[in-house]
Amino acid sequence: MVNDTTRLLGLAVVDVVAAGQDGNESGQGPIVHLVTADESVRVCPECGAVAARAKEWVTTRPRDLPVAGRRCDLRWRKRRWYCDEQACPRGTFTERVAQVPARARLTVRLRQSTGAAVADGGRTVVQSARDHGVSWPIACSVFAAHAARVLPDQPGPVRVLGIGETRRGRPRWAWDETTATWQTLVDRWHVGFVDLSGGQGLLGQVEGRTSATVTTWLGERTQAWRDGVVFVAIDMCTIF
Ligand SMILES: [Zn+2]
Questions:
Q1: Shared domain check, 92 and 58
Q2: Centre of ligand 1 from the C-alpha of residue 17, in Å
Q3: Do the domain assignments include residue 240?
Q4: What totals of helices (H) and strands (E) does the chain contain, helices first?
Q5: Ligand 1 centroid to residue 98 C-alpha, Å
Q6: Same domain for 110 and 145?
Q7: What 3-state DSSP class applies to 39?
């Protein structure tokens, strides 16, 4: 069954069976009931065998993007299957689709949109979290994942390197029994590395404010990259 609501929702491999008109828990939009529409979800993720024996029905509530500006509460009724393949170590598995991986509480597109709003849209993490109806830690982690996907592993060549300290957060300490001293768990000081002459901006920010913090980060670059640095600008801090 592919109806207009299914098309509107645009989630492949699941069908909308009922979309309530009344307000959902968030008081903004409908509750949308989904069922699995593609039998390919019966394929065991471990061995690839097609399962024939259903164990039980479960209902999950993946969070998704708003539709037409309103938050929809999804209810996906799906099955848990037995894998009867003898050599397969997997006992049972639950149906999954690409947009809603196993155990995922958010659809992939909701995660991507939340991260992209910060990385590409210039929104703060707090604002993107509000706009997408997710918590700050989730918005922050999907932004970091988004950035990791699009940023190169190594920075491009830098002619003028800026090294500076930044204070953030609160320090945390823990008592170390063996040395009988307080050890830093979280350092309130970070060291930032900035491309001052090119367009790359902040290249890295590392927790700690010791000379080892600086040399470790520099050591992770290639020799060719270090050789390309002609000037280094630092503030008047002894560790630099
Ligand atoms: Zn299997």
A1: yes
A2: 29
A3: no
A4: 6, 11
A5: 18
A6: yes
A7: helix
Contact indicator for 112, 142 with CB cutoff of 8 Å: yes
Q: How many domains does the chain have?
A: 3
CA distance 123 to 125: 6
Q: What is the pLDDT along the chain (240 residues), one digit of tens a residue?
A: 456 666 556 665 566 666 666 555 555 677 888 888 777 888 999 999 999 999 999 998 988 888 777 788 888 888 999 999 999 999 999 988 888 888 888 999 999 999 999 999 999 999 999 999 899 999 999 999 998 888 888 899 999 999 998 887 777 888 888 888 888 777 788 899 999 999 888 999 888 888 888 999 999 999 999 999 999 999 877 777
Residue 239 lies in a domain: no
Q: Is residue 168 part of a domain?
A: yes
Residues 15, 86, single domain; the answer is: yes
Q: How far is the CA of 12 from the centre of ligand 1 (A)?
A: 23
User: Are both 136 and 214 inside the same structural domain?
Assistant: no
The neighbouring-strand residues paired with 78 are 58
Domain span at residue 140 reads 106-151
C-alpha 128 to ligand 1 mean position (Å): 39
